[in-house]
Task: inverse folding
């Protein structure tokens, strides 16, 4: 693949265009993001996130960076666990998503910090965080290796990274049905609920071109993470990757 091009779904585009194109997708869906997550996954995304939170093992007083934090599902729970002695930063590259997340958390009485950042060039000091999470956001990043390296840099020694992301379905007989759901049903739901079928067609395509479980594990190890592993959820439709900076 041309080093100056990247995937936008199944389409090849110049690297410099991807942030803008992905931004347009999330500007379009931000206000109905939570509703669409519930509809698309039949609510199962809540179980995936609950599993991720349990793996995190967050403790009072720790610093947590929730990248691509969207509307704050993980950040809310982490804020409860770190308490007033700790800190949670909900970060996202998309201003519309940050605004929706901030309004939601304020409405629920949760006070945390917010930052609009690009995961490839995190504007934080070295060795800053005990935990970094990125849920359903890594596949939208242009240079995934750069983002992983940036996360490694700002993670404290002994700190942990958790990546919750769509991955490769491992149950072969279900793949034809999963493809029909992804490429036919999802865009239809998107059209009916958000008046935007195109963004959900991109979602399905972005999952297919995202690194699978073993590929992502190797990328994590290549930038320095150790004791890396992953857990497949729902047959591999989603996976949680975990690694440590030692």
Result:
């Amino acid at each position: 693949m041309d080093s100056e091009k990247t995937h936008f779904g199944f389409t090849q585009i110049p690297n410099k265009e991807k942030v803008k194109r992905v931004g347009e997708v999330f500007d379009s869906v931000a206000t109905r993001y939570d509703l669409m997550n519930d509809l698309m996954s039949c609510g199962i995304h809540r179980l995936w996130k609950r599993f991720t939170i349990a793996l995190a093992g967050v403790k009072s007083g720790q610093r947590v960076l929730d990248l691509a934090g969207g509307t704050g599902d993980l950040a809310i729970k982490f804020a409860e666990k770190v308490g007033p002695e700790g800190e949670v930063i909900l970060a996202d590259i998309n201003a519309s998503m940050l605004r929706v997340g901030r309004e939601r958390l304020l409405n629920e009485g949760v006070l945390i910090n917010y930052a609009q950042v690009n995961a490839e060039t995190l504007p934080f000091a070295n060795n800053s965080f005990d935990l970094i999470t990125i849920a359903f956001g890594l596949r939208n990043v242009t240079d995934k290796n750069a983002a992983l390296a940036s996360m490694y840099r700002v993670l404290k020694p002994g700190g942990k990274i958790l990546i919750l992301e769509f991955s490769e379905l491992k149950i072969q007989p279900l793949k034809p049905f999963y493809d029909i759901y992804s490429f036919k049903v999802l865009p239809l739901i998107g059209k009916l609920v958000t008046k935007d079928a195109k963004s959900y067609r991109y979602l399905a395509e972005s999952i297919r071109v995202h690194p699978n479980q073993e590929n992502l594990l190797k990328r994590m190890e290549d930038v320095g993470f150790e004791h890396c592993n992953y857990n497949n959820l729902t047959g591999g439709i989603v996976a949680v990757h975990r690694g440590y900076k030692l």
The domain at 26-244 is CATH 3.40.50.150 (Rossmann fold). The radius of gyration is 17 Å.
